[in-house]
Amino acid sequence: MAVAAVAGQPDESPDPRPVLELRGIGKEFGAIRALHGVDLEIFPGEVVGLMGDNGAGKSTLVKIVAGNFAPSHGEMRFAGEAVRFNRPVDARAVGIEVVYQDLALADNLTAAANVFLGRELKRKFGPFSLLDHKAMAARSLELFGELRSETLPHNLVRQMSGGQRQAVAIARTRLSNARLVMMDEPTAAISVRQVEQVLGLIHRLKEQGIAVMLISHRMPDVFAVADRVVVMRRGEKRADKAIGDTSPEEVTALITGAKEAA
Amino acid sequence: MTVPMESPVSYANVGRARWWRRGFFASQTGYVTLALLILVLVMHFASPYFLTEGNIQNVAKNFSFIAIATLGATFVIITGGIDLSVGSMMCFAAMIMSMVMTALSTPGEPGASWFVHLAADGKTVVANVPGLILAVSVLCGLGTALIVGLINGFCVAVLGLSPFVTTLGMLSIVRGLAYVASNGRGSFPGGPDADILYALTSGDLYGLPAPFIYLVILALLMAVVLHHTSFGRHVFAIGGNEKAAEQTGVEVVKVKIAVYVICALAAGLQGIIICGWLGSAPANMATSYELNVIAAAVIGGANLAGGIGGPLGAIVGCVLLEVIRNGLVLAQVNSYWQQTLVGVIIILAVLVDRLRSRLA
């Protein structure tokens, strides 16, 4: 289990290099200090639960990593290289994918169309390039298979269950060989059985060596799937513990402020 | 790890719907096409003239006069926008085309010497290259449409103005410019190329009216663009969930500008075709045609909320409107009923689709 290692020190996990490394990240919006001095490391194949109350700075942190806006302070390293994102496309280019809370799916399109939205596969016909429907359907089916979801590529997203929608949104992150997937409240609005499916999907990503940052309010989900839990409060990181070394009670206390730090 | 990872994944609630419950057959376009076929049958029994060759040609020509603009407007409607300026655009593009054509054909006007010369009798105007004036003037008309489309698109996509308000303003601006340009009198295509224009717009090929041929070609092109290019896919995605399109890297601004440009160009072309058929571009030409165009698109199944629509629906909507108009005339019903009936059909078409989605 990779517990936050001090920078530069070797770690005993198989790949000692963190995929994402944050050093002293801070962000101000005018006079409001949304984030302050956040250090964080995530290793390949590791699932980190990011927890905190509303306004604790979780989404600000996610948005910085996703390239929605640049940090005011601190440095960000991805796969060992210093990075600075100006747009979400920049973050995606290096291998950071985000599964948004609302999943960013177009209801009127098929599963395959959504998976490939914005990066459609095309075939050249003389000067024209037309969509390669077959290749996209085949690749989507493969991805749904990897995720063990029985979603069919030609089904309309409008007709899908919450779990299937999650599968479509997650399959999208698998197109580009992402190395870090951040999931914003993936289990917030779906049924109990579907939650199990989604946690399964997260486990599939982990198996493939992908680092996952799971932003969630739901304690049982985080404890079921995460290797490590990071607690944010008032824009600061208050705890960063392996899941075995902590308990839901302690995390709750950290979130509410009953316990200052751990 | 407490999650049973190997639990079999199964969804009993999804499967492939039967063929009559998906795609075309389960769409509003499908129902309206069915209604149209029934209407045609009824008309056939009600009037022996309805299915005569002459009347069919007449109907085909008439619906082609709004259907090309409807194809363009359908692009905008699929993205969840609307373009109210199509009627004015038809008029303005036709007028610019017609004025340029007349000016280039008049010896003595600036630039005209490149295109025409006087014949030996000193009176007859002869084109240096037949068709060149027509080509240049049509390009000027379409160029005007392009500029108007770019302005519409810029206001909607970049400035974030509401499509309804932007294009309502543009409806007035463009109509006003048409009156200003011709001083309210309208314009007549003149010169040696006018006959080519008439032949290309009101002529026919193997009995098929020329506008109908253009319509079919453009509709096929539109079907390919919508369903087999990434641009078309993005048009649907923006209509379905604009924020999602943005987040997944679709160039929303570019696509939105493009659909307003396509719409304006289609309206401009439509105006030029109507002008060729009328033989003039009066300043009040195509007034309130935007309502027919939007009505036809909506009847044919385009959803004003965005995300749904296509060329077949646009054409079926136009045909239905024209068949009703034509049928009322043949049945010797007071033609003022037409508008009332069109309104009823719009509401019925949307109502049937609503009921269907409730039942499904």
Largest sheet of chain A: 6 strands, mixed
How many separate domains of chain A? Answer: 1
What percent of residues of chain B are in strands?
under 5%
Order of strands in the sheet with most strands of chain A: 6-9-10-3-11-12
Shape of chain A: globular
Q: Which stretches of chain A are poorly predicted, pLDDT < 50 over at least 5 residues?
A: 1-13
Number of helices in the DSSP assignment of chain B: 13
CATH superfamily heading of chain A: P-loop containing nucleotide triphosphate hydrolases
Question: What string gives the helices and strands of chain B in order?
Answer: HHHEEHHHEEHHHHHHH
User: What is the typical, i.e. mean, pLDDT of chain A?
Assistant: 85
Radius of gyration of chain A: 19 Å
Reading side by side through the largest sheet of chain B, how are the strands ordered? 1-2
Q: Largest sheet of chain B, described in full? A: 2 strands, antiparallel
Run of helices and strands of chain A = EEEHEEHEHEEHHEHEHEEH
Which percent band covers the strand fraction of chain A?
25-35%
What would your notes on this structure say?
The complex is a heterodimer of chains A (262) and B (360). A 6-stranded mixed β-sheet of chain A has the order 6-9-10-3-11-12, with helices on both faces. Chain A has a 4-stranded antiparallel β-sheet with strand order 2-1-4-5, covered by helices on one side. Chain A contains 8 helices and 12 strands. By secondary structure, chain A is an alpha/beta fold. In chain A, β4 (73-78) and β5 (81-83) form a beta hairpin. Chain B has 360 residues and is mostly helical. Chain B has a domain at 64-288. Chain B has 13 helices and 4 strands. Mean pLDDT of chain B is 86; it is low at 1-14. Chain A binds chain B through residues 88-89, 92, 98, 100, 102-109, 113, 117-120, 122, 128-131, 133, 148-150, 152, 154-155, 159-161, 164, 172, 196-197, 199-200, 203, 223-225, and chain B through 1-5, 7, 9-11, 13-14, 16, 224, 227-230, 233-234, 236-237, 239-241, 243-245, 247-250, 307-308.
